[in-house]
Amino acid sequence: MRHCIATQTKEKRNSNLRYKLNLIPLDFMTSDIQRSALLTLIENIERCRETQDNIDKIYNELCEIIFSEMNDKIPKFEDNSSKKRYKHRKPYWNDNLVSLWNKMSIKEKEFTHCKGNRNTRASLRNSYIQARDIFDKTLRRTERTYRKMKAVDIEAMTTKKPNDFWEKIRNLGTRNHKSIPIEIVDESGNIETDEQLVLDKWRIDFENLYTGSNSDEFDYEHYRTVMSHKYLLETNMEDPLFIQNEYLNRNITLDEIHDIVMHSKSKSASGFDEIPYIVLKFPIVIETILKLFQLILDTSLIPSIWIKSVICPILKDPSSDARMPMNYRGVSLLSCISKLYSAFMNKRITFYLENEDILADEQNGFSKDRSCEDHIYTLNSIVRNNKSLFVAFIDLRKCFDFIDRDMMLYKLLKNNIDGKLYNSIKSIYQNSESCVRLNGKLTS
Fold first, then answer.
1. What are the backbone angles phi and psi of residue 434, rounded to the nearest 5°?
2. One Pfam family for this entry, by name (predicted)?
3. pLDDT band at 349, cuts 50/70/90?
4. Mind listing the pLDDT tens digit for each residue in 298-318?
5. Are 310 and 332 contacting, i.e. CB atoms less than 8 angstroms apart?
6. Exposed, middle or buried by CB within 10 Å (0-12, 13-18, 19+), for 334?
7. At what angle do helices 254-262 and 336-355 cross, to 10 degrees?
8. What is the DSSP string of 185-204?
9. Is there a contact between 11 and 69 (Cβ–Cβ < 8 Å)?
């Protein structure tokens, strides 16, 4: 995996342009121009020659068609960076409160600007106080009603709509957007604030994290044996008489892609291509994605932009030193369309593993409708029945980051996951590139 750091944004469209994705019109992607463009693209896919340049060209055309429609149909947020920021209106503010507020304001002006005698001023003062009290009581009652209804909605979401529940929780209160300090502590304990040195430190640390580290305890003899066997298995797939896994390598169906696209999380962040999930949930786009995925599966060539990801560092522990890169959890933002293709492959593999009874029944991780609760139930049952119990708790530090991809691919081959699907997985994990986003700047 290659990692470099730079201080300028590259290969990104206008990153300051933000769309109001909750206001996508019903006629999105239904115009004759866009439908014609996508149908032409489908024809180009079917006639495409199997080269990397052609794959990239087709994918870029798809992105441009979608972006053109987004620019024409979807409203955008205004850039308020140079404007005065006003407080947002209270969510429970309504027309009745507006009317009471206006009445109170009028009464206040009449009282403060009155130049009459004492009795007139006293009368106006009482009228103002009465209007103010009515407004205050109505405001408090409206706020209580709003908060009570919101609490009831959130409680109902815990069981009916868990995704919406966490979205509501995230929106409660104010958000603190803390920037990453552009300084580090070197090996001598000195604080370094030179931007280039800081960026180099982030580059080196994340590069070391994703490329793994050498260990004297690693069995290199076993590794060489495994790699030799892996090479033989891959060579065997090139034999014209090789029979690949029929279920995993069959043609992709429209139902498969439709189900995956429609179940994608619309509010997930997009990757380098900046195409969000929600603009893909239209029939003509899904049909185009189907043709694109079939081409990728047949050729084992993926769009070049799919191998690029944006790493967003998130501080693991708020009390830890924010100047240390390894105190951050790197969350990679990938192309949404590439994640749909990965979801398609994962769904086929998961069904195959379950149908062939390959996974051990004791494994609950990464299994549908299984979780840590199943292990807890098992342990609790053994304890209650007074049976012997031997437990080992193992915490593998940065396990996912250190996975050897060649060993992972070998494991797939050993379980008869081969052919076009295997080659697609291999293409996705080969020559992957990452950049880190630091306070709005992208490494490259």
1. -135, 150
2. RVT_1
3. very high
4. 999 999 999 988 888 988 888
5. yes
6. buried
7. 120
8. E-TTS-EE--HHHHHHHHHH
9. no
Alpha helices per DSSP H over 31-89: 32-46, 52-73
Residue 187 has pLDDT above 90, yes or no: no
Q: What is the pLDDT of residue 444?
A: 58
* 27 and 67 together in one domain: yes
Confidence of residue 435 (pLDDT cuts 50, 70, 90): confident
- What is the dihedral sign for C-alpha 32, 35, 39, 40? positive
DSSP string, 76-129: B----TTSPPPPPPPTT--HHHHHHHHHHHHHHHHHHT--S-HHHHHHHHHHHH
For residues 243 and 115, membership in a common domain is answered with no
- The answer, yes or no, to whether residue 279 has pLDDT greater than 50, is yes
DSSP secondary structure letter of residue 135? H
Which of 324, 330, 337 is CA-nearest to residue 443? 330
State the amino acid at position 205 in one-letter form: D
Q: Are residues 196 and 276 in the same domain?
A: yes
Q: What is the pLDDT confidence band of residue 245, given thresholds at 50, 70 and 90?
A: very high
Mark which of 171, 196, 212 sits at the end of a domain: 171
Same domain, 29 and 62: yes
In this structure, the answer to whether residues 240 and 296 fall within a common structural domain is yes
Alpha-carbon torsion angle 404, 409, 411, 417, nearest 10: 160
* Distance separating alpha carbons of residues 373 and 367, to the nearest angstrom: 13
Say yes or no: 296 and 322 in one domain: yes
Question: What's the total number of domains in the chain?
Answer: 2
pLDDT tens digits, residue range 155-180?
777 777 766 777 777 666 655 667 88
Q: Is residue 193 part of a domain?
A: yes
Q: For the chain, give the mean pLDDT.
A: 85
Among the candidates 131, 152, 171, a domain finishes at: 171
Range of the domain at 148: 95-171
Task: Tell me if 358 is assigned to some domain.
Answer: yes
29-80: pLDDT as tens digits: 988 999 999 999 999 998 888 899 999 999 999 999 999 999 999 998 876 5
29 backbone dihedrals φ, ψ, rounded to 5°: 65, 25
pLDDT tens readout for residues 202-244: 888 888 887 765 566 678 899 999 999 999 999 999 999 999 9
For residue 105, give both structure tokens: 């304001």
Q: Are residues 167 and 295 in the same domain?
A: no
Q: Token digits for 188?
A: 């001598």
| 110 falls within a domain | yes
Q: Is residue 135 part of a domain?
A: yes
